[in-house]
Amino acid sequence: MVTTILSNGYGEDAVGALLAAELLKATPSWQVQAFPIVDAGRAYEPLNIPILGPRRVMPSGGLLLHHPRLLVADLRAGFLAMTWRQLRDLRRLKTDLLLVVGDVYALLLASQVRTQRRYQVQPLISAYHAAEGRPPPHRLFMEEFTGLERFLMRRLVRQVYVRDEPTAVLLRAKGVPQVTSLGNPMLDALSVIPRPLGLKPPVVALLPGSRGYAAEALALMLKAMTHWPEAQGVVAWALELDALPSPAGWQREVLAPGRIRLRCGSTAVPVLRERFADILHACDLVIGTAGTAHEQAAALGKPVVAFPVAPYYSRGFLRNQTRLLGAALTVAPAEPVALAAALRALWSDSERYERAARAGRERMGEAGGSARIVADILQREGLRPVPAESCARPR
Fold this sequence. Notes:
Blueprint: E1 2-7, H1 10-26, E2 31-36, H2 68-76, H3 79-92, E3 97-101, H4 104-110, E4 118-122, H5 127-131, H6 140-143, H7 147-156, E5 159-162, H8 165-173, E6 179-181, E7 203-207, H9 214-225, E8 232-236, E9 251-256, E10 259-264, E11 267-272, H10 276-282, E12 285-288, H11 292-299, E13 304-306, H12 315-325, E14 329-331, H13 336-348, H14 350-363, H15 369-380
Parallel strand pairs: 1-2, 1-3, 3-4, 4-5, 5-6, 7-8, 7-12, 8-11, 12-13, 13-14
Antiparallel strand pairs: 9-10, 10-11
Helix pairs in contact: 1-15, 4-7, 9-13, 11-14
């Protein structure tokens, strides 16, 4: 039995990898493979499964519609040629089961694959987007279930899995009956026993993300931390340490393999790789320029302060995050003093802090979705009996 996971984005790859791990655990005799559309599929590499497709990352990092400059950069870098190669490979692909992690674009590509069994995990769109107002036209498909996506769901997909029950209710009302909510898979990476970091509160997690603007964003976050000396910052660095910036005035101290400390006067900020979950559990606040990581932080009740990094991490993207996260997200100017003030204001106002923490937990759904989605798919395929508690969630 060959199962292919098609995912179209950084966060989608992370969700796809969690689902792949559950599939390998539940069906060790199956061949599981991945086809990443946007990222190089690095999230799948620890699983040692085949990773198909060109695996080429464009300059925009998948954000080509966020700004005309990004679209032009991708076109110049060969976006159309890469897309043609992806379509060619997908048309040649034959798989017993196709699990699509993503939006309408992923479904369009999935329509080219030769298979009779398609399932979709839609981790992007939430009913909370619609509740906060209509997005601009170029972001419509990122925040609403468009007519095209609903058509493809009805025509191609045996079952659609969304992040929370309000979103499932919304999609059923729009004419897609085969939809259910079994939990938010992106939260499963946080379901670990955290290893203590030994930091004193208030602890601020610095999340610059994994795209090309991470170094620029981190430099600004570090400067912000110098304006709140009472706080302890810690960086969750997703890239190679060679890409870690050394802003003017900061010294780099190597503490251990994979662990560096940046120091500027009396401000010392450790930089950790592969400790993301530990950092989120340990922190009290977040300052970041990320996507999925912000949602994961909000789910743990950690208020997030974000700022734009033009043209990549745009104000439009932040408006999208605000519609989704509500009071859990505070958007501040991209200026160190203003960012430090925003963090201090949240920490010093207990009522506002609790409101932000509560909003994040409410809007992100519950963990455990990866295992329940895989169990539900197997049950629908008649491949394995599933214990009742595995799928006991609202439908």
